[in-house]
Amino acid sequence: MIETIRGEDRDHWSNEWLSSRQSFPATGNFDLVANAHGVLLVHNDDIVEAGEGLDTHQHRDAEIVTWVLDGVLRHRDSAGNGGTLVPGVVQRMTAGRGIRHAEGNATGRLDGRPLRVVQMWVAPEHAGLEPGYAEHDFADDLAEGRLVVVASGMPEHAHTPAVSIANRHAALHVAVLTDGQTATLPAAPFGHLYVARGRVDAVGIGRLDEGDAVRTTDAGALDVTAVGGAEILYWEMHTSFAR
């Protein structure tokens, strides 16, 4: 089964400084498990105005994976991790039994440069894990125009540079494609493709524009070809929540 969600149909939440387009409703009192696909709970494409961000707040029992598209993200947490995140660098924060953090646009208000960031939450296999943090720069790998595993808990990716996540059934792939380049997305019981930038043609689906998402169930490998250049994010998942 293949379900296409157009960008204009994504859930949208905004305030004075944040515009959040969400694959699954996440802002407010929502049952994240009930709305999940595979083990993907949250998939937000956020634009944060210069000098703004979220003050310290708490998370627990989620693998939080962050991918910057434009600008610079500032991060600090109660485990002592802090710094900035730029395009090409993936960040994973294991909330575990509880972690407090703050994040936002690292540029000041006078700079006027917005931050665009995709934040994704995956369910861990076990509750109450030790909080943790990891990041890795994949800019050079992505420059080759191939599909790159940037975050994974799958055993077959254990000896790759991918940052680890606490779920052995899930992996995040990213590709930055030039016009005409094709990426083959691996077959999986559950998949989530997101066109973060540009436009692609997907075999059996057709044209997908920036902001469009595709949810697959028991689908085979999927060929995606860039039309004028594109950046795609694909979650490969081999399990789901019991309904």
Question: Would you kindly provide a written description of the structure presented here, covering whatever features stand out?
Answer:
This protein is mainly β. It has one domain (2-237): Sandwich (Jelly Rolls). The protein has two helices and 20 strands. The protein has helices at 32-35, 139-142, and strands spanning 2-5, 11-14, 18-22, 40-48, 53-59, 63-70, 73-77, 82-85, 89-94, 99-105, 115-122, 132-137, 148-152, 163-164, 170-177, 182-185, 188-202, 206-209, 213-219, 222-237. Strands 1, 13, 14, 15, 16, 17, 18, 19 and 20 form a nine-stranded mixed β-sheet that branches. A seven-stranded antiparallel β-sheet has the order 2-3-4-11-6-9-12. It has a four-stranded antiparallel β-sheet with strand order 5-10-7-8, with no helix packed on it. β17 and β18 form a beta hairpin. The radius of gyration is 17 Å and the shape is globular. The mean pLDDT is 94.
